[in-house]
Amino acid sequence: MSQKFQELIESERPVLIDFFATWCQPCKVQSSVLTTVKEKVGEGARIVKIDVDQYPAIASQYGVRGVPTLAVFKKGELLYKESGVHDVNRLTQLLEQYI
């Protein structure tokens, strides 16, 4: 997964990574928000979910201490990272500035 993850974040288009856990209630809320964000940004950005329990090494590598944590990458560069639930408008604006 680590090699695949690296290829994913090297993308020319922005990639929003949702670090989540299946047992996390706020993560479920964030997931429904991300569905709406995807509809708004379309093909301009990718949204990928990473389960921190399945891929702890990736979460650790990027300093994920709590879930949900959202991170935006473009061309391998970490452009944004913050924990907590984000709303649709904030995430849409965030991604649009990198598209």
From TrEMBL:
InterPro entries: Thioredoxin, Thioredoxin-like_sf, Thioredoxin_domain. Coiled coil: none annotated. The keyword Transport applies. Keywords: Disulfide bond, Electron transport, Redox-active center, Transport. Pfam families: Thioredoxin (PF00085). Residues 1-99 form the Thioredoxin domain. Transmembrane segments: none annotated. The keyword Disulfide bond applies. Belongs to the thioredoxin family. This is Thioredoxin family protein. It comes from Chryseobacterium kimseyorum. The lineage of its organism: Bacteria, Pseudomonadati, Bacteroidota, Flavobacteriia, Flavobacteriales.
